[in-house]
Design goal:
The chain contains three helices and two strands, in the order αααββ. The protein is mainly α. It has a domain at 6-43. A two-stranded antiparallel sheet has the order 1-2. Belongs to the GatC family. It comes from Roseibaca calidilacus.
C-alpha cells in the first residue's frame, strides 16, 4: 500500500466531517498510513477454519426465547393517543 498523502488525508477528514487543521494533516496522513499497513498485515493471517467470535473469553451470549407475540399492549398504547379509531392511531389527512 502506498503512503497516504496530505491531500488524501484532507479528503478523508472532509468525508468524515472532521475539522483537521492544515498543520495536523501530516500527522493524520501518517496515522492513516500506519493503520492501512496494519490492515495489510492482518490480511496475511490465515484464518481458514477459524470461527468468528464476539469475545476473547469462551462464553455464550444469553439469548431470549424467539417467540412471536403482538405484545398485547394495544389498549395501553392507544390510551396515550390524542385520537384513536378502530384500534389505530387517527391522524389528520395531509394529502388530497
Amino acid at each position: 500500500m502506498s503512503e497516504i498523502d496530505n491531500e488524501t488525508a484532507r479528503k478523508v477528514a472532509k468525508l468524515s466531517r472532521i475539522a483537521v487543521p492544515e498543520s495536523e494533516l501530516p500527522a493524520l496522513a501518517s496515522d492513516l498510513s500506519r493503520i492501512l499497513t496494519f490492515m495489510e498485515e492482518l490480511n496475511e493471517v490465515d484464518v481458514e477454519g477459524v470461527e468468528p467470535m464476539t469475545s476473547v473469553t469462551p462464553m455464550r451470549l444469553p439469548r431470549r426465547k424467539d417467540g412471536v407475540t403482538d405484545g398485547d399492549y394495544q389498549n395501553r398504547i392507544l390510551s396515550n393517543a390524542p385520537d384513536a379509531r378502530e384500534g389505530f392511531f387517527a391522524v389528520p389527512k395531509v394529502v388530497e
